[in-house]
Amino acid sequence: MPQQSSQPGGDAHRVVMLVDDGSNPFELGVATELFGLRRPEIDRRWYDFTLCAAAPDTVMHAGLFTLTGVPGLHAAEGADTLVVPNRPDPHIPPAPAVVDVVQRAAARGARLVSFCTGTFTLAAAGVLDGRRATTHWRWTELFAARHPRVLLHPDVLFVDDGDVLTAAGSAAALDLGLHLIRRDHGAEIANTVSRRLVFAAHRDGGQRQFIPQPLPAVPDTSLAPLLDWARGRLHQPLSVTDLATHAAVSPATLHRRFHTELGTTPLAWLTSQRINLACRLLEAGEPRLDTVARASGLGTSANLRTQIRRHTGLTPSAYRGRFTTTPPPHQRQRTAGIGAPEPIEAEQV
């Protein structure tokens, strides 16, 4: 059954997930968990979430169960974000009525999101032509042959192309969903949700879908202590060599362990952690870009601007203006992220 936001105030962002015969229950659960559950620990209006389906009774993947009482496709007409789940068999085209719903949503400017092989549905609707997208690695060759006008990125977790976002697989749907929450509500709120999920707060979309190397017969000691150590020193000029030295391994071994455990490189992980910290400082209302850059280890305000824009699509000042929940600087005294209280300075944009 659909779940509606019950918080008072203005209209919430409306997320509608389209379910179809054969849809994956995991991806349905991802959307419900991220966008449909009430979040009393978050003091702000959450999403208004509902489902829609082409038929009154919808049989989920492998006939595990049947959804009943789901609103019809008309429920998608007011969606601010429309989520399209996997196609159980990408060789079979989506129903014309489903394609029509996607096309109408695109025409009115709704945000479109696909999980796994749902990319095939978006492509069938023509909304991916000339745009970047990804899909599950098993189906990349079929997708590329069938939809040559789509700029397919076959080996990443998800792709954010502005108002159209695509996730590679079921687990990557969680990464993309948290990325959407980060875009809509900021890094701190996304971290709060990920903690409740007991899930990694941030895996960048550019990480690989799967790790081709087999796991070692005797697994290495977890990277967790090293990651905790590094997170506490992001303001320092840490290098991959510094990380390797602290872990008492060679840089080559450290790279292998990062690929095995995290699916990324030490430098990419370090950069993502610094950007996440910079976003949290901006959300806290810090007005000085040089302070944010220094406290997060991004070095200069110029590099900070580049990294924040690359990962959020916003300038630092625009990001702070959208997500800060603290009083304006003139109403409080700010404390530098890595030092004693400093006088307020105007931000250099």
UniProtKB/TrEMBL annotation:
Q: Where is the HTH araC/xylS-type domain?
A: 224-322
* Species this chain originates from: Plantactinospora alkalitolerans
* Residue segments, region Disordered: 317-349
Asked whether the keyword Transcription is assigned, the reply is: yes
Return the protein name.
Answer: Helix-turn-helix domain-containing protein
Tell me the InterPro entries matching this sequence: Class_I_gatase-like, DJ-1/PfpI, Homeodomain-like_sf, HTH_AraC, HTH_AraC-typ_CS, INH-QAR
* Pfam families hit by this protein: DJ-1_PfpI (PF01965), HTH_18 (PF12833)
Keywords of this entry: DNA-binding, Transcription, Transcription regulation
Give a yes or no for keyword Phosphoprotein in this entry: no
Tell me the superkingdom of the source. Bacteria
